[in-house]
Amino acid sequence: AASKEQQSVRMYQAGEDEEHLKRLAIIDELKQALKNDDGQLYINYQPKLNLEKNTVDKVESLIRWKKLDGSFVSPELFIGLAEKSGLIIELTHWVVKQVLMQLQNWRNDGLMMTAAINVSAQDLSHSEFLSFLLNQLDQFDVNPDQITLELTERDIMINEDLVIERLTQLKKIGITISVDDYGIGQSSLGKLKQLPVDELKIDKSFILKLSESDKDQKIVSSTIELGHKLGLSVVAEGVETESSLQLLQTMKCNHAQGYYLSRPVSSNEFVEWLQQRDA
Ligand code: C2E
Ligand code: CA
Ligand code: CA
Ligand code: CA
Fold first, then answer.
1. Taking each helix axis from N to C terminus, what angle separates 267-278 and 88-108, rounded to the nearest 10 degrees?
2. Is the pLDDT score of 278 beyond 90?
3. What highest taxon heads this organism's lineage (predicted)?
4. Residue among 62, 158, 243 whose CB has most ligand 1 atoms within 8 A, to mutate
5. H or E segment and range at residue 279
6. CA nearest ligand 1 atom 26, residue
7. Residue of 48, 85, 118 best suited for mutating to test ligand 1, as the one with most atoms within 8 Å of CB
8. Which H or E element spans position 30?
9. pLDDT(7) > 70
């Protein structure tokens, strides 16, 4: 008979295999969803409030996956798997297309918006990304200055030289580059100085409890100051309360994003929200 130890090793391996198969199944389903484009995948939009002008001139696009059985798969899970499997390239292409189409539709309705798209290191490393983006901008008649690309410090470091080269090209054509989740990565301030970026997006972990935490307030206000000294625009994500919003306004943060203003919603709901706000 197998010893207890052997049994638990075997069970552990069986569990691992099961997890592995589950991941493969999700990737496969995602591939199908992208190929069929049958509405399982869609984009939600979350407004970013311009704190100086008190207007909404930007949104972040956030992908959603609602399977045909009605269940949701979290983006954290399937984006991670798409990155590991290489499917992210195709997925990002799909997102770019949806968002540009939306910007064109909004403009036809008289609404000029800037949209942020989340990208990964792989997207930027891919040789065709820039030409794809230029082609899509042309096709949907969208200005490069209507697009922000958000990527994390970690993504920048993964393939640093190539990514920096690509970011420089993108910035040159007028695309805005934003460092997402700023403050939780391990990049040095020296690095920040070298990066071809326009915007810092302070991670929500510093913002969620802003009004209760002296330390967070110190970190956030000095990050905003630093960003401004480096000529960058600063966005705070995870703004869930009126008091956080007010503090950020006092600290001269440029944009605020979070549930206090709006959750990520469909394009129609976003337009309704905007109309109610302006009314
Ligand atoms: P992220 O880019 O940091 O996006 C911000 C996340 O915070 C979103 O989660 C958003 O719904 C959530 N959030 C917004 N306001 C608040 C708030 O006030 N409080 C709290 N607690 N959370 C807030 P979501 O939509 O689940 O997305 C998770 C992550 O998945 C994103 O993090 C991003 O890394 C990735 N992701 C989402 N859509 C895309 C996409 O189209 N492409 C890629 N590559 N990644 C995406
Ligand atoms: Ca983001
Ligand atoms: Ca973020
Ligand atoms: Ca994140």
1. 40
2. no
3. Bacteria
4. 62
5. none
6. 75
7. 118
8. helix 4-36
9. no
Using alpha carbons, select from 199, 118, 201, 121 the residue that is nearest to residue 160: 121
Which of 237, 257, 261 to mutate for ligand 1's pocket (most ligand atoms within 8 Å of CB)? 237
- Exposure string over 117-136, b if 16+ CB within 10 A, otherwise e: bbbbbbbbbbeebeebbeeb
* Residue 83 CA, closest ligand 1 atom number: 44
Q: Pairing relation of β-strands 55-66 and 41-50?
A: antiparallel
Q: Report whether residue 235 contacts ligand 1, using a CB cutoff of 6 Å.
A: no
113 is written with which tokens? 């918006």
Widest CA span in the chain: 76
pLDDT, tens digit (0-9, with 9 covering 90-100), for 197-253: 999 999 999 999 999 999 999 999 999 999 999 999 999 999 999 999 999 999 999
76 lines ligand 1 (CB under 6 A): yes
pTM as predicted: 0.94
Q: Does the C-beta of 47 come closer than 6 Å to ligand 1?
A: no
**Ligand 4 midpoint to CA 58 (Å):** 18
CA distance 279 to 277: 6
Burial of 202-223, coded b for 16+ CB within 10 Å and e otherwise, reads bbbebbbebeeeeebbebbbeb
Which bound ligand lies closest to the C-alpha atom of 61? 1
Residues in the chain: 279
Q: What pLDDT is recorded for position 199?
A: 97
Cβ–Cβ contacts within 10 Å for residue 54, how many? 9
